[in-house]
Every structure is written in C-alpha cells, then in structure tokens.
Amino acid sequence: MHKQVVVIGGGVGGLTAGALLAKHDYEVKVLEASREWGGCAGKFQRHLYTFPVGATLGMGFEHGGIHERIGMYLGLEIEKVSLEKIMKVHLPHRTLIYYQDRYQHISYLQKQFPHKAKNIRSFYENVFRIAKEIRKLMQSLPVLPPLTVGEWSRLVSSLNFGSLKLLPYFHQSFSYLLKKHSLLDEADFLHFVDGQLIDSMQTTSENCSMLIGCLALDIYHEGAFYVNGGLYKVAEALQKSIKANGGKTTLGRKVVKIERDNDGWIVHDHRGNRYRASDVVCNAPVQSLKSLLHDEDYQHIHKRAKEKSELPQWGTFSMYFAIDERDLPQKVELFHQVLQSEQGEMTEGNHLFISVSHPDDRFRAPEGKRTITASTHIDLSKWSKKEAYDLQKQVLEKKMVTGIKTIIPSIEKAEHQISGAPKAWERFTSRPNGGVGGFPQTLDHALFNSISHRSGLQGLWLCGDTVFPGAGTIGVSVSGYHVFQSITSHRHTLP
C-alpha cells in the first residue's frame, strides 16, 4: 500500500507535489485554509468579474519550461497567449518596450540609448551566455543546497565544462555586470533593469545574485505568456488532476498543528479533524513552522530554515479595477510597469506592476469589460500600528491611482475599485503578517544559501516560495517537484 501524504496549503507548489504523487498512486489529501486554490496566485470574484490576486504574467510555459514539462506529464491544458511585446515600462521621462525576441529587444534598446549601443549589446550578450549555461545546469532540476549523497551526485552529474565559466560569478551581485559594461551610470537603463529584478527576484541589481539575475532577465526571452483567466488556472488544473487520480482536496481547512506519531504524522485542522500521514508536505512559508510544530520538533528543523524564518519578507499592496473597455486607450498593452521615482526607488508605490485583462478573456470579465490588477512592494514594518495602517492605505491608494493614470487616464471611471493591504493578504493566504514573494534573491539567500525542501524531520517536506529556488510559479513548481522526487526516492523524473 502506498504512503498517505497530506499537503498543507493549496498553492501551486503544494498542488504540484500533490498532483505528481497522486499520478503515482500515493494517497494524497490537500488541505487549503481559504476558499480558493492557488495561494498568492489565486483569485477572488466580485459580481461579474474575476480578479487574479497576485501573479499575472506567465512564464515557464515555453518548450522545456517547468510548466510545460509538468503539464505534459500530467496531461494538463492551460489556455495561454504568447506575447511579442511583453510589457511597456513607463519611466518618469520616457516609455520603453520589453520585447520577447532577444535581438529585437537589444536592437530596440540600442536605439533608445544610442550613446551606449555597444555597451548594451555586450551586456545582453553576456547575460544570455551566462543564462544559457545556468539553464543547461538546471535542466535536470538539481536540488540546492544539496544535503544528501544522492543530491550531491545528481548536482555533479549535471555539471559540464561550461559550468566552470560560472564559478567567478558566484559571489558577485548583478551590479558587477552593469559596471563591467559601463551601464551603472545610465539611470534610465539601470531603473529599467531594476524594474524587472524587483518583480521577479524581489531585489534590485545592487544586491541581486548575479547568476540568478541573469536567469531572471533571460527568462522573459525564453517565453512570456498571458494566461486566460490568470495563473490560478494552473492551480485549478493541478487540483483537478489530483482528484482525477483519486486524491482528496478540501477548501476551508486551516491546519493549526502538525505532530509526530510513531513513524508518521498527525495533522490537525481548525475544526478539530485529524489526518494521519506518513509524509506531510508543508506548502506554507517557513515563518509558519514555529506555530505549527511542537517546540521539541521545531528544534530539529534545519538551522538555516529556523534562522531565516525570523527574517522579514516584503508585503504587497494591490489594487483591482473593473472598467468599461471604451474607457481604455486603444490597443492598450496587457502588461505594464510604472516607475514614478526619479531616483529609481522600487517600493511603496514608486514601482507598479499592472496587468490588463485580454479583450477576449471571458474568465475575467464580460464582453466589453476589462479588469486591471496593480501591485507594489511594501515594507511591512510600516503597517504594524492601526493608525499608521489606515494612513498608509490612503496614501498608497492615491499614489497608485496617480501611477495607473500614466497608462489609463480614465481609471477613475472604473465600476469597481478594490484594495488589498497586508491584513487582506494575511486573511486570504494565511501568510504571517501578509508577507509574500519569498526571500529576496540576494547573495545571502540564493543558490547554495537557499533553504532546502528537506525540513530536518523525517517525513516533513517544505515547498513554496521560501525554499529553493524561490518565488514565482516557476520556483514553487520546482520546489514541489523536488518534494515529489524525494518522497518517491527519485524513481520518477520529468521528461
């Protein structure tokens, strides 16, 4: 008889692990506290409209991408549209376009910065070379940091001669590469790059790991997609796969305690139900472990996970709008960044990521209507007191609407305007203090300094955005795959 596995949290990472295990006849039960699947990539509804709560730009669906590989393996179908123009980036004094085609992208930016044309070409060629070697290394989806002989063996077997070229860059931040190509003093270009890094890596070029930063800039050119409905469709497809393979998935079940029982585990939910399991997959931030485990068990969690669980995460402030299509500019792009700071500040409403629903996307809005999602990074420490919270909310709403007007001057005609502050995120996703996005991919947190999916306790596994490889649906899917492989002792691999 196969093992019984309880997955805590119905985000994309936990659902990935659950779907892969269920395909191989494991008895899977997924417990999700909220009423929606997807976690930070979930959705909510207001009247005729569906709003993706967070992640909206899809990557990893290209040939060889993690979503494509898992989708093929499980037989999932996700409706998506490839983007030729990925987004428009609105700086204070100019607007730049991010093209999917690599060399169209380089050529375009050379024309925008003619005095730095050679520097920009050499910079991107350098980025693409490094990223190509990293992708070769990551094709087999090795585990970092490796903690077992098997993980070390699989990592070493994925190395090739080209991997040696990466060694000098392991301890460099991304600003090293900008400096090398004499681009640090080109403010608009620097802010353009930082805008991409803050969204995908949760930090900017000054502190971002150079290797991870190269991968982040390169991945847009591997493939960027609009997913019909939103990325919650990935979560829903995984959930349906689990059920189709005999697993059980339950919404509205908040897990409050995990305790060891002989050779297995007992999981307790807020309604007093108990679930026995040989393995538990915790798709919750590492910050949640202390409250879920008994003190004695928590002391056996890997030291790095415990140390990092004390560190703060970013929060996000999001705004959601429903608007008549006639009130939008003609041929408005689906994705935008708006940078409102002359100094290139990337948080507290100075940097916005905005997505507009596709005119043919009937999952999100009726015909003739569109939805808009806008978000910004925030420092959660500024939201700890009620008086400051209410004031911050008013200030940010006003600041974000000003930024959105850059691309949609008539945004105030919207039928719905909804704000999502940290407490809303905490209620919706059950994440401590409403923290999102995992840890910034700095030298202190990336690659070998990441948190392993191995908790330190036998049969308790970690996945999600706080463990390797990090945030985004790509990162959490890989973490879910690592858990699947470890539970099955690497008997099954993706094609």
TrEMBL record:
GO terms for biological process: carotenoid metabolic process. Residues 13-481 form the Amine oxidase domain. This is C-3',4' desaturase CrtD. It comes from the Bacteria. One of its GO terms (molecular function) is oxidoreductase activity.
